[in-house]
Design a protein that fits this description.
Distance between the termini: 9 Å
CATH topology: Arc Repressor Mutant, subunit A
Radius of gyration: 18 Å
Structural class: mainly alpha
CATH class: Mainly Alpha
Number of domains: 1
Number of strands: 2
Low-confidence stretches: 1-5, 92-104
Shape: globular
CATH superfamily: Winged helix-like DNA-binding domain superfamily/Winged helix DNA-binding domain
Helix content: 40-55%
Strand content: 5-15%
Oligomer: single chain
CATH architecture: Orthogonal Bundle
Largest sheet: 2 strands, antiparallel
Strand order of the largest sheet: 1-2
Length: about 150
């Protein structure tokens, strides 16, 4: 199996690995351990548990404890979008507003404006990615479960 990272890093660092993991879960159709997911997406099981925990908090996957436990999709693949996954791994949260009075220097004001612009760009990215469901992405590639 080829490695997930192909040198193109757009979005949050965990985005690609999370998409591969969720696609793999969709293809497997059942409960899968973090170790099995990690081996399929060429990652470490501990890191995979972190990614899956983030996806679980976002309502994308469900975790089951115990000896036969693991992860499964919480919703059908056609109801999960790339935007959902992106937002989950990016841990999008409302930004803390900082007032202009808190900024004494022009550089700080510029930083604030850049942060606002980047936040807007990121929201547009999420909105764009929400146009694509997991099922649509899987149909665009020849993805096999080993």
């Amino acid at each position: 199996m080829s490695t997930v990272n192909r040198g193109i890093n757009i979005g949050p660092p965990w985005f690609k690995i999370a998409v591969h993991s969720v696609v793999w879960l969709a293809k497997s159709g059942g409960i899968v351990s973090s170790a099995m997911i990690a081996s399929q997406v060429d990652s470490h099981a501990t890191f995979m548990r972190r990614v899956m925990q983030t996806l679980s908090v976002a309502g994308i996957v469900e975790s089951r404890g115990g000896r036969e436990g693991g992860y499964m999709l919480r919703r059908p693949a056609e109801q999960i979008t790339l935007g959902d996954i992106y937002a989950a791994v990016n841990q999008c949260s409302p930004e803390q507003e900082q007032s202009v009075e808190d900024c004494d220097e022009a550089g700080e004001l510029l930083d604030l404006e850049l942060e606002k612009i980047l936040a807007e760009a990121e929201q547009q990215t999420i909105d764009f990615l929400r146009r694509y469901t997991l099922t649509q992405v899987m149909n665009r590639v020849d993805y096999f479960v080993n």
